[in-house]
Design a protein that fits this description.
By secondary structure, the chain is α+β, with helices and mostly antiparallel strands. It has 4 helices and 5 strands, in the order H-E-H-E-E-H-E-E-H.
Length: about 180
Amino acid sequence: MTLQEQYTKEIRPNLYKELGLKNIFQVPRPVKIVVNVGVGEAISNKKILEDIGAELTQITGQKAIITLARKSIAAFKIRKGMPIGVKVTLRGKKMYDFFEKLTRIVLPRFRDFAGLSENAVDRSGNLNIGITEQTLFPEIEYDKISKLHGLQATVVVRAKSRDDAKVLWEKLGVPFKKIAQA
């Protein structure tokens, strides 16, 4: 059973009862995942954006787009409109597939991984995960990468409160750190 089917058939009805909601459409649900890589080196080396875009496409299964600077920052030698990063926005089936891979394969591959911090969930309930190396993804071959880089994955949720969203993340299998009882 895929994560999307599990959410639809088991998790959503359970959350509906558990949270005591009046309408099934009020149940918290993931909307999209934005995977982003900021590349400061792109100012001097334009080819690196293509390489990172290809890796991101391989990881997510969807073509990555190059992001441009919104404003000029003199200290970093960035001008408005310069290419400075790569991103992918996933929705629907690809979103659920990537989320399942992220929580069940990639996160456990972190060295000394004890779970995500409670601070990974922001005030709106969105889940923000920083990944230190792209080599944690099984699609990436270590021999074929040009440069190690990290990436940021933001899972956007539609929920009434942070607490409702946190319940959803736990039901979807996001590993949070266990707080030691004194």
